[in-house]
Amino acid sequence: MNVISALVLLSISQLLFGITERVEPVSAASSAEDAGPMLGDLTAESVKIWIRTPTPRTSVVEISDPDGKIVRRCQLRTTAKSDHTGTLEVLALPPGTRFTFSIDGEADDDWWFRTRPESDDACRIAFGSCADEGVGSASVWRRMEEDQVTALVLLGDTPYIDTTDLARQRARYRAFAQPADFARLVSHVPIYSTWDDHDFGRNDTDGNLPGKENSRRAVTEYRPNPGYGENGEGIYTSFRQGPVEVFLLDARWFARTEGDMSDPTLLGARQWAWLERSLAASTAPFKILACGMVFNGSVRPFKTDCWGVYPAEYARLVDLIARLRTKGVVLVSGDVHWSRVIRHDTKERLGYDLMEFVTSPIHEKLIPAANPPHPGLIFSVGEINSFLLVDAVTTDDATTLVARIRNASGEDLHVEEISATATGAGATP
Q1: Residues of the chain with pLDDT > 90: what percent?
Q2: Which fold has domain 122-419?
């Protein structure tokens, strides 16, 4: 993917007046070939802006401050190689500031972003899985808009693709990005995503799926994540907002590609090493480990893609958290078309029980068989058009996380409050 970094160290003349070529205006998402703009990784000092154009082109993106003054004028190039997609990364912005932007002279009231505050002590992150382009999914995007979320995390099956054919992968991502309510939301709310089985390429599949490199290529083209795994493998990544760092795990690319049949890998050696380094380095009071695949084995009969089918890998995860003495870990998953809250019995090992929030579906398709018993089951509901809303805040006294299973009408179906002190995390250093 073509990424252009706009650095403050560049001269003002280059940033503001250095573009002389004429570019014909084009409205974003104005045809079946357009998509975006979409915000990617957003920090206190930077933002990523993604677009897809009908044909390869060089567009002009202008960033304006609250007074309407243009503070950046940058080129964003889309290419045939990247399926006419491109991502602009703008750096060295002031924190806590609301900016608007235009593309090729075209502007919209929804095209804005606010850099994270310098003292970043609160966030409201929406997590969801299993979505389509229908009216039900649209109602969830509208609810997230009304809830004023600060980030959207897609956990997979967003979209449904069920093939690794590159042309089909691209077409499905493009179609998923176009409905008005989704496009409006992600034009000013940063999106972060991992995949599950259907967007990886096939139901209940693993890393031996032929053509998986095409699926990965489409993700790198159509989702402006902070990163995409390492050395051309996987799409795992992480980001931080407020007192929360989210680790987006890839439970597909490496699954069953390493180890023997009696003890196959799920995350793979490279991703395990990344996770260990990243958890050890994290200073966030809460660390959310998120993936499409549920972290337990309480699933519908004959389902082969869950952490419960990889008991050695689940044990390795708990061992890693224990060895690093990592506090404040919370699990978030999706996939199963049923929403559940499960308490994992880890207090003896970790000093606290891991809480898992399963959120699914954003669309209307439920699977009642996905509601089997589990000894740690706290809550379970089959609710269409639902998602997980996570609020976290640090005050002078404490850091807390509130997780809500929520529906499109704004009803909280279940609420759990977790104190950082209860998980040994304490307040933000």
Answers
A1: 88
A2: Purple Acid Phosphatase; chain A, domain 2 (3.60.21)
d(CA 226, CA 244): 16
Dist CA 428 CA 76 (whole Å): 37
Strands of 70-78's sheet in order across: 70-78, 57-64, 98-103, 112-114
Q: Which two tokens stand for residue 218?
A: 């489409």
**Residue 332 · residue 296 · CB < 8 Å:** no
Token code pair at residue 127: 């997590």
**Which residues fall within 8 angstroms of residue 44, CB to CB, at 6 or more apart?**
95, 96, 115, 116, 117, 118, 120
Domain ranges of the chain: 3-107, 122-419
Q: Are 412 and 404 in contact (CB under 8 A)?
A: yes
pLDDT in tens, 315-348: 999 999 999 999 999 999 999 999 999 999 999 9
Contacts of 283 (CB under 8 A, 6+ apart): 428, 429
Could you check whether 3-107 and 122-419 share the same CATH topology?
A: no
Residues 6+ apart with CB under 8 A from 101: 37, 49, 61, 62, 63, 64, 107, 111, 112, 113
Q: What is the pLDDT of residues 31-45, one digit of tens each?
A: 567 899 999 999 999
Tokens of 8: 């403050």
- Distances in Å between the Cα of 25 and the Cα atoms of 28, 36, 195 are 10, 14, 34
The CATH topology of domain 3-107 is Immunoglobulin-like (2.60.40)
